Structure formats: C-alpha cells, structure tokens
Amino acid sequence: MSPLRLVWKNIAGSAFRSWAVFLCALVVGGLLFSTVLLVRGAEDSLRLVQQRLGADVVVVPEGTGDRVETALLMGQPTKVWMPRQNLDRIGGVAGVAIASPQLYLASLANAPCCTAEMFVMAFDPQTDFTVTPWLNRHLGHNLGLAEAIGGSDVFVPYGEDKIRIYGSEIDLVGSLERTGTGLDTALFLTFDTAYAVADGSYTKAVRPLEIPPDSISAVLVQVEPNVDPRVVALQIAHDVPGVTAIPGSGLFQAFHTQAGLLSRIMAALLGTVSLLSLLLVGLTFSMAVNERRQEIGVLRALGATRRAVLHSLLVEALMLALGGGATGVLLAALVLYLFRNLIVASLMMPFRIPSVPSLLALAAGGLAVALADVALAVLLPALRASNLDPATAMRE
Amino acid sequence: MRALAILIVILAILIGVLPQFFNCQYDGKGLVLADGRQVPMKCYWTARASLAVAILLLALGLLLAFSQQQETRRALAFLGAIAGILVILLPTWLIGVCQHPGASCNLVMKPALILMGILVVVASVAGLVLSSRRPEPTA
Questions:
Q1: B36 reaches A (C-beta below 8 A)
Q2: What per-residue confidence (pLDDT) applies to A350?
Q3: Are A186 and A154 in contact (CB under 8 A)?
Q4: I want to staple A223 with a disulfide (CB 3.0 to 4.6 A). Which of A17, A56, A154, A269 is the partner?
C-alpha cells in the first residue's frame, strides 16, 4: 500500500476526526478571507469615490459635512443649502484653481411622477471636473438639457425609454462604473436641467422640487499645483463664514473609522476561532494517536521510519486542511459576491469586490493560514506518535 | 449519501420558504395600476415557482435518503442537479426579479436562490459520484 493510499484510508476510516479538521479549516480559511475582503472592499470603494469626486477640498454649509458624506457614500438623498455668493468668495481664496458648484437634490419616492427615490447631483458644466472629463472621454460631449448620466444601478424602467423625475422625462445617456457606494444610485445632470425639472414640477409632480433662489449645496475645489489642500481648506474656513471645508484626505473619516472598527472586531473573532480550532484539532489528533498506538507500532515494526509516521500524520491533516480551507474560501467568496448589495445596505458601509489578482492573493492568504493553523495543531501529537517505541505500542 | 440527502432536504425547505418572505408583494410594494388594483411583480412569480421546484426537491431528497439501489440513487442525484440548475435559472433568466437594486428580491431572494441552487447542484453531483463508485471488494 502506497503512503498516500494509507493516508486516504485513515481519512475515510475516521469520519468524525476528518470532519472536525475539515470544518475547522473551512471556518478559519473562510473567516479570514471574508474579513480581509470586507475591509479591503470598503477601502477600495472609498478610494474610488475620492478619485471620482476628484476634489482637493469639498466645501459644504457649516455642520452638514456628515450628511453630505453619507449622501455621497450611501446614496441617502440630502438637501443642504448655502448662498451662491460663497462660490465667488471661495474662488478668490489664495491657492484655489477651480471652484465648481453642485446642487444636491432628491427625487420623490413611491410617486407616480417618478421612477424611484434617487440622490440627484446637479453640476455646472462650465467648471465641473467630476463628471465632465468622463463625459468627454465616453460621450464626446457634455450633457444637454433633459439629459443625465447615472450610477451603475440607475435604470430606465421596463417599457419606457426615459427616466421620470418630478414628472419631467430625462434621457439616461450613460452609466458610470460601479463603485459600491451611493454614487451607484445617483443621477448626474446639469444645473439647467435641474432648474427646468424644478420649474416643471409645479404642474407635473405631486410635490414640487424646490431649489431656493441663489443657492447651492456644495463647492468642489481643485487647488493650484504644489499647494497643500489642507492649508487651502483652513484658509477657506477662515475667509468664508458659515461653511465647512473638508480637505480630500479628510473626507469620509467616519467611514474609515468604521472600517477600522469592523476590521478589529473581525480580527478578534478570527483570533478566537483560530485558537479554538487549534485546540479542537490538536485534541482530536491526540485522541487519534492514542487510538492508533498499536497500528503505529505495527507500522514501525514493519520498517516504517519515525519520519514516515510523522509525514503520514502531517499529510493526512494537511490534506483535510487543504480541502476544508479551499471550500471555506470558495464559499466565503461566493456568499460575499452574491450578497454584496445586502452587505452595503445592512452594514451602511461601501463595499466593492477587489480586482481578480487581489482576490487570488487574499484566497491564497486564507488557505495558508488554515493550513498553518492545522499543521501547528497536529505537530505535537504527530511528533509523539513518531517517537513511540514499537514494542511498547504493540503490547498495549 | 444520507448526509447529502439530508442537506438537499434542508435546502429544499429553504428554497421553498425563504422567497415567500423576501419578495416585493410581501413587502407591500406591488405594482399599483391607475384604477388602484395591485399587480404582483416578477419576483412574486419567481417565489411561487421556487415553491414548486422546492417541493420536487424535497421529494427527491427524501427518496434519496431512503433508497438502497445505486442506480436509483444515481437517477435521483441526476434529477437533483437539474432541479438545482432550475433554482438558479428562475431568478436570473426564466422569470427574473424586479429592476430596483434596493428591493428585497434583489438584495436577498435572488442571491439566496443562486447560492442554494449551487449548493443543490454540488450536493447532487457529489451524490452522483458516490453512487457511481463500485463497492470495494471485501477480504
């Protein structure tokens, strides 16, 4: 009988032990993979939103920073207003290269006039640097009146060819790449379209869209080259009363903290599970070695070296760990991929599946930890078994 | 084999029950017509169809648990795999779910049916492999 066949016979011969090791490796591998993937996915998502906004400084009405960040990340519509003249003041601050205004609006939910509740962002095509570069690259022109582009989850309803916002029909001319954040459900249109929709809403919608005159919601700022955005943000906060200026690096701090907290909780859980599985696998294999003392004695008497006995037990455990770890990683990947939208909605945290090379690296990491956990647990009982005296073992 | 049959029975129960509580009709979000009537949306019909496939799977799982003949087990496992594929196809291609990505049918029902369908296919294929193996000669 070949050594591998002997290992396979041992695996098949003891269902309880085999399942215990398999399941421990499955839980450790799957948990590690999903923990790292969740945290990595959230960080990836935050990075992509910051890139897409492209702003060095975001200026919002004083005290509304959290609401605007939640709107941008989770797509929860918000309405915040500040005087339009702030735009000129911000543009005049030293170090500011471009200042572009935005309007944050919300479509109506469950109303016959509207497709669905959406976060609507209106931008000024003259100064915008968030959506316009994408439009020029993909459409070759900026948005016209009654045209919009949407996040990846914005759709035109069945049987219709346009989206309806406050009773006005809007042509969806493109969709942005998925970010795993609220921007996926946001609609982007120009100021002119927003004002036209607001004017029409008084006669077409169940409730009018009210945009206060001479008001804007936020100003996105690009600073001049070699100028520190944090310094510009401080200067804006000093020069323009009633606003909060958030430097790009300081955006979404609450969500970064939340991701850090989640990663610490998951790390503690992973540590506990790894320790428990280490104890369980170690105990199971200790019992197995005790049960198989005579069998091991016979093997040694037939000429098997200590090394061969040690190898046989280690290979048996590692084969089970490999199977369990791989199953755990696959299952975790499948569950996270399928339920990614539910994760975003219930954890209130952005999440985006990372690239394939990152995924493969994470899977390899999960598998390696599961293998190491089981190998460590089995090492002591395996060494004890290999050191058994054949004559004594056979007599017992 | 009995463990696989029990797994299929558990999955069949979940496939039958879960979609009944995660569809837009259950959430009170049916399509309201101009005359006030409510029309069930796609996900409601997917949930109903899942119930039909679940009953079939439940019977298959129970038969698999109690059958002794290898050939019968093989045939049942093959049918189980087909039923698993149907469970995946119901929300993705045959009927579908609603368009709104935030609806409970999109958040829970569709991914759950796909996951359970995959597990049914894997369990059935494992059953097929196990029932196709020749018994080892005894000494």
A1: no
A2: 83
A3: yes
A4: A56
Would the pLDDT of B11 be above 70? yes
Radius of gyration of chain B from its Cα atoms, rounded to whole angstroms: 18
Alpha-carbon separation of residue B68 from A222, B1, B42, B63 (angstroms): 74, 10, 41, 10
Q: At what angle do helices B2-21 and B42-66 cross, to 10 degrees?
A: 160
Report chain A residues whose CB lies below 8 A from the CB of B87: none
Instruction: Compute the distance between CA of residue A330 and CA of residue A363 in angstroms, rounded to an integer.
Output: 8
Q: CA A29, A21, A12: angle at the middle one, nearest 5?
A: 130
On whether any CB of chain A is under 8 Å from the CB of B100, the answer is yes
Q: With 0-12 CB in 10 A as exposed, 13-18 as middle and 19+ as buried, what is A55? A: buried
Question: Is the pLDDT assigned to residue B139 strictly greater than 70?
Answer: no
Encoding tokens for residue A173?
């001319």
Distances, alpha carbon A357 to alpha carbons A178, A328, A354, B35, in Å: 18, 19, 8, 54
In chain B, the residue whose alpha carbon lies closest to the alpha carbon of A332 is B115
Identify the pLDDT of residue A111.
Answer: 54
Q: Which tokens hold the place of A385? A: 């078994």
Are A335 and B101 in contact (CB < 8 Å)? no
Chain B residues inside the 8 Å CB shell of A338: 111-112, 114-115
Provide, rounded to the nearest whole percent, the portion of chain B with pLDDT above 90.
70
Q: What is the pLDDT of residues B72-84, one digit of tens each?
A: 999 999 999 999 9
pLDDT of amino acid B134: 63
Q: Do A185 and B108 touch (CB under 8 A)?
A: no
Of B108, B114, B118, the CB nearest to A342: B108
Burial class (CB in 10 A: 0-12, 13-18, 19+), B137: exposed
A13 to chain B, any CB pair closer than 8 A? The answer is no
Task: Flag residues of chain A having pLDDT under 50.
Answer: 113
Which region holds residue A79: left if phi is over 0, alpha if psi is between -120 and 50, else beta? beta
Q: Is B99 close to A155, i.e. CB distance below 8 A?
A: yes
A274: closest CA of chain B, how far (Å): 26
- What pLDDT score does A311 carry? 87
Among residues B66, B109, B87, B78, the alpha carbon closest in space to that of B11 is found at B87
Per-residue confidence (pLDDT) for residue A278, from 0 to 100: 86
Cβ atoms of A290 and A87 within 8 Å: the answer is no
CB–CB of A339 and B118 under 8 A? no
Judging contacts by C-beta atoms under 8 Å, the chain B residues touching residue A158 are 99
* Model ipTM value: 0.89
Q: Write out the H or E segment, with its range, that includes residue A209.
A: none
Mutate to test the interface with A, among B11, B32, B107, B133 (most CBs of A within 10 A): B107
Residue B18 has what pLDDT? 96
Contact A132, A125 (CB under 8 A): yes
- A155/B contact by beta carbon, under 8 A: yes
Contact A338 B101 (CB under 8 A): no
pLDDT of residue B22: 93
Q: What mean pLDDT is reported for chain B?
A: 91
